[in-house]
């Protein structure tokens, strides 16, 4: 929580600031209402200001959409023509440029603010009831009036809708219900790989699922007949989400959840890890499922695997090779890390992506996405 402050004809005003992503409170605050044009709002936001909305809720949503279109037009004007070489160095450059543009867009659009009353009542005309969605994302309401980003609020509402209806997982034959800030298993290729890989030759009485997230991999292991599973995560949101899903599936008696940075204590016949697939700094909880600073989780899994396997056990690394096609990490580097951890590759399954972006030729990173493969590496100690 922080404080935002602004001035008008009535004097100086302040509100508490709430952000699920720990974004700092904006410092330069102006006012906007139904008379504010998108061009005027864009000028203020692009110069580092923020706008506290005082008009109709639906008009605020329309303004946010109009601002998004202006951001896209501005980015298109300033973007250098994409070169056709297709080399990894070029793709690396494009990737960093695209990611920077997305971050700048998020920062600018995140500066349109809405006022709220205690109990998560949006203090605007025609505002919807968002109390349940906000309670899921933020926890108990502040006791004083506060402000939050409209863009973030819309994300909170969308996450609540996903949580309510769930996501059908064909490999599981059931729905997974992602919580706010927990990465949803939208791409199913890696889930299919886990169901196809042969279990270790030794009886698989215990498995570890590292970085469980929604709990979907732990649920799939239970469906495959693994007797007991310990699923870990360092995110309280993820642990709560996994608990919810396992209870819905009637598998909470088979899976024990544990707060841990990576490994639980002890050894298992099978250790499964699906780490973030791109090295880089995460800027949000959802980003942390995609970006792994210095490949910390990947290397931690590899370095600790041999010590956490029982004799005859296996480690399953589920990892996209998109980083290789973007020039962010080489295959040789990954294989060197595997060898340095005292491990050997005893099998490998891979699958091509099936998500729409892999077929979108207009995507600046199309060459990398079309070449991407997700693999399940079966690893064992040397």
Automatic annotation (TrEMBL):
GO MF, one annotated term: methyltransferase activity
Signal peptide (from-to): none
Any single GO BP term: methylation
Ranges for domain Methyltransferase small: 176-318
Keyword annotations: Methyltransferase, S-adenosyl-L-methionine, Transferase
Coiled-coil stretches: none
Name of the protein this chain belongs to: Class I SAM-dependent methyltransferase
Record organism: Thauera sedimentorum
């Amino acid at each position: 929580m922080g404080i935002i402050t602004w001035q008008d004809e009535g004097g100086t005003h302040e509100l508490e600031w709430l952000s699920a992503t720990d974004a700092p409170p904006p410092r330069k605050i102006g006012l906007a209402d139904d008379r504010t044009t998108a061009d005027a709002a864009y000028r203020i936001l692009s110069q580092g200001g923020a706008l506290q909305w005082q008009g109709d809720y639906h008009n605020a949503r329309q303004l946010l959409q109009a601002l998004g279109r202006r951001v896209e037009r501005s980015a298109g004007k300033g973007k250098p023509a994409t070169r056709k070489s297709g080399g990894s160095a070029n793709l690396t450059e494009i990737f960093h440029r695209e990611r920077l543009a997305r971050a700048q867009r998020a920062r600018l659009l995140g500066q349109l603010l809405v006022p709220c009353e205690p109990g998560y009542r949006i203090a605007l005309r025609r505002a919807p009831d968002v109390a349940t969605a906000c309670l899921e994302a933020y926890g108990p309401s502040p006791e004083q009036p506060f402000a939050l980003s409209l863009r973030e609020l819309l994300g909170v509402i969308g996450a609540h809708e996903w949580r309510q209806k769930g996501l059908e997982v064909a490999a599981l034959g059931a729905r997974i219900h992602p919580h706010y800030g927990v990465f949803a298993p939208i791409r199913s290729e890696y889930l299919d790989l886990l169901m196809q890989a042969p279990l270790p030759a030794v009886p698989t009485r215990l498995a570890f699922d590292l970085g469980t997230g929604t709990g979907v991999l732990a649920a799939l292991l239970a469906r495959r007949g693994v007797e007991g599973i310990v699923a870990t995560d360092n995110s309280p949101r993820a642990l709560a989400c996994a608990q919810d899903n396992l209870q819905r599936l009637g598998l909470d008696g088979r899976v024990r959840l544990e707060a841990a940075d990576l490994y639980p204590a002890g050894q298992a016949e099978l250790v499964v890890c699906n780490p973030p697939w791109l090295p880089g700094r995460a800027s949000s909880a959802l980003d942390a499922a995609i970006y792994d600073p210095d490949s910390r989780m990947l290397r931690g899994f590899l370095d600790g695997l041999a010590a956490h396997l029982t004799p005859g056990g296996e480690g399953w690394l589920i990892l996209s090779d998109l980083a290789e096609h973007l020039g962010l990490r080489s295959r040789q580097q990954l294989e060197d890390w595997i060898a340095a951890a005292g491990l050997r590759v005893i099998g490998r399954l891979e699958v091509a992506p099936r998500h729409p972006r892999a077929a979108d030729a207009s995507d600046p990173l199309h060459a990398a996405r079309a070449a991407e493969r997700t693999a399940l590496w079966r690893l064992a100690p040397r």
